[in-house]
Amino acid sequence: MATTKTARATVKNDINTLKDDLKVLGAEEKARLREKATAAEARLRAKATEAETRLREEADVLRERARGYYDTARVRGQEYYDEASERLDEAQRYLVERVQERPMQSTAIALGVGVVLGLLLAGRRR
């Protein structure tokens, strides 16, 4: 019996030692996992910062490109406006010159166009 009690005590001590070892190993593994998680978080934050920086740089490049397109379109639009304005002025000068050269003929043409338009508009009202 004494050997059974001794064996039981030894097994009990071994189990308690095993429990203590498991607790220590669990705590060590938990600490290691925390370190790995902290390192992974730091790497992730670094990558996020790097990606944010790249996105900001790309946004700046795109903004500058869009500003260039806008400036080009504005200049071209101004050129088209100036050209159309010149052509309109030329057409007006030409018309004024022709009316001044032949005032009677111009008045007759204007009267004829007015009569035709008046008849067309009056015909629609019926």
Structure in words:
The protein is mainly alpha-helical. It is 98% helix and 0% strand. The chain is built from 2 helices and no strands. The mean pLDDT is 91.
Summarize the model shown.
98% of the residues lie in helices and 0% in strands.
Can you write the helix and strand succession as a string? Answer: HH
* Rg from alpha-carbon coordinates: 48 Å
- Spans of at least 5 consecutive residues whose pLDDT stays below 50 are none
Number of helices: 2
- Major β-sheet annotation: none
The 3D shape can be described as: rod-shaped
Mean pLDDT: 91
Provide the helix percentage: over 70%
Distance between the termini: 132 Å
Give the strand tally: 0
Portion of residues in beta strands equals under 5%
Q: What would you call the structural class?
A: mainly alpha
Q: How would you describe this structure in keywords?
A:
single chain; about 130 residues; mainly alpha; rod-shaped
SSE topology:
Layout: H1 2-101, H2 103-125
